[in-house]
Design brief:
The complex is a heterodimer of chains A (about 110) and B (about 110).
Chain A lengths: L3 E4 L2 E4 L5 E7 L6 E7 L6 E7 L5 E2 L8 E7 L2 E6 L8 E9 L2 E4 L3 E5 L1
Parallel strand pairs in A: 2-11
Antiparallel strand pairs in A: 1-3, 3-8, 4-5, 4-9, 5-6, 7-8, 9-10, 9-11
Chain B lengths: L3 E3 L4 E4 L4 E7 L6 E7 L6 E6 L4 E3 L2 E6 L4 E6 L8 E8 L6 E3 L3 E6 L1
Parallel strand pairs in B: 2-11
Antiparallel strand pairs in B: 1-3, 3-8, 4-5, 4-9, 6-7, 7-8, 9-10, 9-11
The chains are: A mainly beta (about 110), B mainly beta (about 110).
Amino acid sequence: GAVVSQHPSWVICKSGTSVKIECRSLDFQATTMFWYRQFPKQSLMLMATSNEGSKATYEQGVEKDKFLINHASLTLSTLTVTSAHPEDSSFYICSAARWNTIYFGEGSWLTVV
Amino acid sequence: RKEVEQDPGPFNVPEGATVAFNCTYSNSASQSFFWYRQDCRKEPKLLMSVYSSGNEDGRFTAQLNRASQYISLLIRDSKLSDSATYLCAVNSNTGNQFYFGTGTSLTVIP
């Protein structure tokens, strides 16, 4: 069964609005979760590392004010894409480590129109 | 230098062929190694872990070469259903950071 769950799977939003994506670890606590973005036919790109109870660590070139990450509990991390634009349309995936192995959420397809 | 380097391919092979992918890593202190499979428009899923002694699961064999700092994945008797992108992953020596290769695209042709 799923180890990491992500919601929603698909979301369409209007340009300028904000979208929140949730990532949950199932049956285990994850002090660290990871957020990725993947454009069609391209590789996974690590956006940020989400740390429970503290600020996220963002990769170079990722705007922290645009991609807000909150990791308020040991089983939930959220990514909010603020003031979304069409170029933010992408596949967003979270992951968490369990027993030294990375497991991915199902991913969220974001389309900004 | 990237933490993990992987040939993006694409690899197009006939059904029944044997195909191998390699992935090199830069940190000699890396502890854990994995292969993931990603189907089109889906999330990556763990295919197998890579142990120092090698790891075999049916038609799939994963190996680690610490001296040369690379891991490999061998697929024997390729099936059409093996068509996917294969990503390697390396866990840092601190255990908190995972690095992924860019993925190798495999298409098995009838």
